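User: Can you help me understand a structure? I only have the sequence.
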Amino acid sequence: MRIFLVLSFLITLFYSCTAPVKSGHYVQLRGTDNLESLSKEFQVEVSKIKDANDSKNFKEGDWVFIPLKRGILVTDFESRSFDPSKYLKSGEFLWPVPASSSISSGFGIRWGRRHEGIDIPGKIGSNIVAAQDGIIVYSGAEIGGYGNITVIAHKGGLFSVYAHAKINFTKEGQRVYRGQVIAQIGMSGRTYGPHLHFEIRKNGEAIDPQNFLASN
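Assistant: Let's start by predicting it. Here is the structure, written out as tokens:
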């Protein structure tokens, strides 16, 4: 099993704001990887991998999406239970919208279903910044009703998610730094108004971002 090259942003079948998204995870291609080897490793048909990555050339270093019914944990974390308490109120993650300090919708049950992030309202075009150093594993608009969405992988198996942007300024595989502008507030996807939908995840589990964020 590949170790560490599999970044486990486990997009389990969850709801953000109003839309379901596809499930699976991202892997970074090694020199020996091809469609056939990925199909064998993850037990997914070649055609399904191709369909999930229709704009990819499948060259070494690319991040590709493997469609799965559920995510697969990185080996290093398989036998460990995640204890979020060590992160709580640590301020390790930066508030992602410098121009706005309010939350229009919090983490938890909303309209009868789980809202797995927080919504930060703002003016269209306001900057969205990376909450922490990391690697872009997704930057695009192909995931359900998220519109323009950015996903950053961080140390410790954590991922931050930034959705509904007007425009993304990053590309997959790019390294970004805490406070770097990565997108702008918008209304792309299914949304009720201009805002950032922001999530933090560990092994596919959504965790209340307010427990990680520095004071805004």
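Now, to help you interpret it: Helices lie at 35-42, 46-52. The longest strand covers residues 158-168. Let me know which part you'd like to focus on.
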